[in-house]
Amino acid sequence: MKDLFPYLMFKGNAEEAMNFYKDCFNGEILGIERYDGAPMPVPEEFKQKVMHMTLKLPNGTIMASDTHENIEDVSAKVQFCVNFDSLPEMQKAFDKMLTKGKETMKIEPQFWVTTWVQ
Question: Which of 10, 87, 98, 113 has the most CB atoms around its CB within 10 Å?
């Protein structure tokens, strides 16, 4: 295996979410393909939604799509495990994520972490 990329599915807000992650983690949107260019039938209200989107992060890649299929809303279940080089860098990204996310744990050393940033 060469690479493994998380692929997130959204119910219509993939572009907003990926732009939020881009800002939090200093990423770059590499491309957006919309459903209006797809060869399959798509509901009219979904034609400008994201069929495929790639976000390049400094040390990884996340891909995403909107789906018009009946799926469970997973937006509250998205979690990231991110390693940082410094505590200030970690705090900055954490604070940005809190503007739209929910804090479930404080930033502090954990028993499963083998190296803690200073």
Answer: 10
pLDDT at 1: 39
Mutual orientation of helices 14-24 and 87-98 as an angle, nearest 10°? 150
Q: Residue 93 corresponds to which tokens in the numbers above? A: 């990204």
Rounded Cα distance, 116 and 23, in Å: 24
- pTM, 2 dp: 0.73
Residue pair 69/59 in contact by the 8 Å Cβ criterion: no
Phi first, then psi, for residue 54 (nearest 5°) are -120, 130
**Structure tokens, 86:** 């410094």
Q: Specify the 3-state DSSP secondary structure of 6.
A: coil
* Lookup: tokens for 89: 């860098």
Residue 74: is it exposed, middle or buried by C-beta count within 10 angstroms (0-12/13-18/19+)?
A: exposed
d(C-alpha 70, C-alpha 118), whole Å: 45
Tokens of 64: 């995403």
Residues 15-62 pLDDT 10s: 999 999 999 999 999 999 999 988 878 888 889 999 899 999 988 899
